[in-house]
Amino acid sequence: xxxxxxxxxxxxxxxxxxxxxxxxxxxxxxxxxxxxxxxxxxxxxxxxxxxxxxxxxxxxxxxxxxxxxxxxxxxxxxxxxxxxxxxxxxxxxxxxxxxxxxxxxxxxxxxxxxxxxxxxxxxxxxxxxxxxxxxxxxxxxxxxxxxxxxxxxxxxxxxxxxxxxxxxxxxxxxxxxxxxxxxxxxxxxxxxxxxxxxxxxxxxxxxxxxxxxxxxxxxxxxxxxxxxxxxxxxxxxxxxxxxxxxxxxxxxxxxxxxxxxxxxxxxxxxxxxxxxxxxxxxxxxxxxxxxxxxxxxxxxxxxxxxxxxxxxxxxxxxxxxxxxxxxxxxxxxxxxxxxxxxxxxxxxxxxxxxxxxxxxxxxxxxxxxxxxxxxxxxxxxxxxxxxxxxxxxxxxxxxxxxxxxxxxxxxxxxxxxxxxxxxxxxx
Length: 427
Ligand code: DLL
Description:
four-stranded antiparallel beta sheet, 10 helices, binds 5'-O-[hydroxy(phenylacetyl)phosphoryl]adenosine
């Protein structure tokens, strides 16, 4: 929760980080073969950490390292001390297994409680958790946090949109936790049922688990009376609540620096970049017992920003993942950039799929996008198509084709995380 350390001096925070970092490195080295081998190969020892900056001497950990040690090889404690196991669904190969001790679960609940509180939540709130429950960390992570804060929790999980709406109307939750794209699906369905989305009981939305553009932010703001904050996290490091945004300053997720040591690196050279410079986020856990993680390469692109609402640093809204970046005829394109451009064409909804293919040697990019409500004339449709093609070309620099589809035509996933890209180039 929002304990004193959140507003302590930077010197106090860094002192705590240093003590915890030393312990993490020692535990990892002594209890996990992977770390012992990796540190030895790199010629470093936990005793080489004499200041926080020395962390850059240690090797990175990558998703592959977790996969190669499937299922329990990265555990620093015996299975008898593990209280919970989650897994992140890999697109290829085995999932990544993550384990938690009782104390890890308690810390996680405290950090999600803190995240809800900094968003503006209190123990009197009723929280609808619409992240999926199960191996995905979203549902249970949010659930335990809301309970730890003392809220009443509705464990709705993802999907069953009509039921979600009935529950919102009948049980009158004041906070909803969902992926931003799923929140839009709920709002679209409400609109088609004639529900006035400006008059919902919901006052705060805690959205995360996928990149979301400013366009989606303003869309949710305009269609509801909710304050929407950005919650960030990843299974390998914990789950939701690694960082979360203040509902007052709304200026990017605050990294809970008493539990995580963040760095931003150049994704190509691996060099640590100064605060304010964009690169890939790297995180070292400071309190995780079951699976301590040293310098995990998240692949998420952002930069570190100075503290505002608390004494802890923030991250800039995640632009995308380095592995989500599309290279279309030599131009780098992030799905969120296309999302921002779609918002410039009022007839189109921010529900879209980018289909990459090849025509001879050339890449092609088709933007499939939903219309908000049916066009009156064929001319209106052609106009919207041409507008989007023009804006994408002038703002991003790639030529695309556009197909406009009916509302709800684009598949919604069961996890609630939107699938934005279909790459047919590898066929
Ligand atoms: O998505 C944990 C989570 C659940 C976070 C609920 C927030 C809310 P994973 O399934 O392991 O864990 O996916 C982690 O999702 O590396 C990012 O690429 C992306 N991601 C998570 N939160 C955000 C966010 C959960 N706020 C991966 N903005 C991360 C952008 C996000 N991307």
